[in-house]
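so im writing up the methods section and need the Acetylglutamate kinase record in one place, dumping it here so i stop losing it
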Amino acid sequence: MKYANEARAEGVPVRTGEILYEAMPWLKQVTGKTIVIKYGGSAMENPQLAAEVMADIVLLKILGVNPVLVHGGGKAINRAFAKFDLPVEFVDGQRVTTDDAMDLVRMVLTGEVNQQLVEAMNAHGNMGVGVSGTDAGIIVAEQADPRLGRVGKITRINTPLIEDLVADDYIPIIASIAIGEDGGCYNVNADVAAGYIAAAIGAHKIIFLTDVDGLYENYPDPDSLIAEMSLGEAEAMVRGDKLASGMIPKLASCVRALDSGVSAAHIINGTVPHALLLEMLTDSGMGTMVGGLASAQFLNVSPVSKFAAKLIENR
Ligand SMILES: Nc1ncnc2c1ncn2[C@@H]1O[C@H](COP(=O)(O)OP(=O)(O)O)[C@@H](O)[C@H]1O
Ligand SMILES: CC(=O)N[C@@H](CCC(=O)OP(=O)(O)O)C(=O)O
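--- predicted struct ---
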């Protein structure tokens, strides 16, 4: 037997109840909704953290959210390229991919990264289903530019498999490989794939988990980290020349998703423990939110303004 006083003396956190309660308004906004989560290779480097991200996604599912995970694995691909002495070259955030390199990219994304995520997620109940974008023709593409080799430009998303998995309460884990209109397969940037998928399935939100705190207007000046920006501001930034490699496809994807009716796009730091939960279920939120607001503001704005922004976003 144990007395209640002893339990308290061991430090039952009084704040826990308040924290759980704080989640209620946010949960009401997202429960039953489909959220596309793009998990980038940069934020997956620590396997322990990656396992925690998978656990958080399962928790969101248990709470009634329908997550659809789209993943990259650029760093793992770079390592494989180094092993086979293949040159790593990017043009506007897209990897130049020869025919031989394509086999390696597919092997790493579908055979290695995808299955690691499935394994980590399914340690918490068998909800995760790993698929390649080629399965059931989820991602269909054609050659983007002959100079990039087998890099795909997405022409279509076939949604039935994703929708069936979600309806059956599974969590799709999708590797960014596309089936070619002309046969074969294509390497598709995972940010781009996530934006197209979010648009095609009519997701409520899209969240990019990366390895920086969000989008910086003048990277890496810490004072230029953007808390909120409108669709118009994001479009202007994509058209401008300030964005560097990794953020070009991410912000362009935010724009595509918002243009297609997704209510908000977030770029957050996936290396912060429980970043997804903090963004989705707390008053403070995290990172950069695109959409729903008229003008860009920086992170040192008062928390009240972020709170108001969230309310507007969720209308
Ligand atoms: N304006 C910017 N704001 C934030 N990060 C930027 C910016 N420009 C370039 N970056 C770089 O983008 C990287 C994230 O993109 P990337 O490496 O492709 O990540 P992921 O694997 O998550 O897709 C950051 O680590 C950072 O170095
Ligand atoms: C065409 C293209 O660039 N494809 C990407 C696919 C993986 C990816 O996008 O990974 P991250 O999300 O980690 O960046 C690549 O080969 O790196």
